[in-house]
Design a protein that fits this description.
By secondary structure, this protein is an alpha/beta fold. The protein is 44% helix and 15% strand. It has a 5-stranded parallel β-sheet, with helices on both faces.
Length: 155
């Protein structure tokens, strides 16, 4: 799988470690954005990674900033992105199986390197369940289009 990764300045080291980890599992990785460690606005990197996923250049994306919150909010503004902030393996698993998340956001300040790898591993291995969840994910798309999901054709 092709994974786009990115971070702000607080996530530079964790994102490099996660890229190497994903490569060791056989995935192709691309780190997007400024990796110099100089101050970087999380919005800029979230845009790069999310657009890569939205346009099919990457299968999934991983973003890291101080809390993960800014990345998640920013990523979810890109059409077609379902970004999830996960601080544990269960959140990562459910974000994939129930919400078909395509971008994972992590906290550099609150998630240690061992836990971050475990979260990524679970997220990468988990498939979308479909079924009743597919209807709900379709409704997310309706919201993206500016429609009331309760009255949309996919309701």
């Amino acid at each position: 799988m092709n994974i786009a990764l990115g971070s702000d300045h607080r996530g530079t080291q964790p994102i490099a470690a996660l890229a190497a980890h994903l490569q060791s599992l056989g995935h192709t990785t691309t780190i997007l954005g400024d990796t110099s460690g100089r101050p970087v606005d999380y919005t800029d990197t979230a845009w790069l990674v999310s657009n890569s996923v939205a346009h099919g250049e990457a299968d999934r994306g991983v973003l890291v900033c101080g809390t993960g919150i800014g990345m998640c909010i920013s990523a979810n503004k890109v059409h077609g992105i379902r970004a999830a902030l996960a601080g544990d393996e269960l959140s990562a698993q459910l974000s994939r199986s129930h919400n078909d998340s395509n971008v994972l956001c992590l906290s550099a300040d609150l998630t240690g390197p061992v836990l971050a790898k475990r979260i990524v591993d679970v997220w990468m291995k988990t498939d979308f369940e479909g079924g009743r969840h597919a209807r709900r994910v379709a409704k997310i798309g309706q919201i993206e289009e500016g429609h009331d999901p309760a009255t949309s054709a996919s309701a």
